[in-house]
Input
Amino acid sequence: MKKIVFVRHGQSEWNLENKFTGWVDVDLSEEGYNQAENAGKKIKEAGLEFDLAFTSVLKRAIKTCHIVLEESNQLWIPEIKSWRLNERHYGALQGLNKKETAEKYGDEKVHQWRRSYDVLPPLLNSEEQVFDRKYANLPKGTVPLGENLKVTLERVIPFWEDQIAPLVLDNKTILVAAHGNSLRALVKHIEGISDEEIMKLEIPTGEPLVLELNDDLTINKKYYL
Ligand SMILES: O=C(O)[C@@H](CO)OP(=O)(O)O
Output
């Protein structure tokens, strides 16, 4: 049975402060480090051995990836980082408190921004975009000004098809340490979840999610360790 393991990064400082985070490169909180360690321990206990790890270019996912690999004694495996696995870009909401934003715009609007498949959050103006060396080599216009899950999926899935799926097809066991919404995009694609149903899918921080896949990469079994 083909197998892939997804781990959403441990709690971040901004998860703790209840702020819209997106592409802002915040660190793990103390609880987040503990969650990542526990995820690594569960992976070790389950005897999961990875051939390769994928992560984003954001430190909360990279650190989670490394902690998981360290705890499971697999820090040596090859690792690929890509902006395509980043959290969805939260546009002009980044840095705002989620509760305060709901008080200002209403719960329904904020829920729509957070969980609808195709409603975009308020976008940044291009002048508001902060230069970041991480993205300096990407073609002009690639760095988004704000994304919904649909747009996130449209940049995650080509990466899945080109880089991850061929390895899974080749029976390699892969770890993907990423973010709530880049992982929701992957799960939606693999399981064929509808645009409505995906609104209800929440992936908790630091809980390894194992997907057992058939030879054609359709889902056979899904469980948290
Ligand atoms: O703020 C964010 O970047 C994400 C993940 O923490 O939030 P949400 O739960 O709204 O997808």
Q: What stands out?
A: The chain has a mean pLDDT of 97.
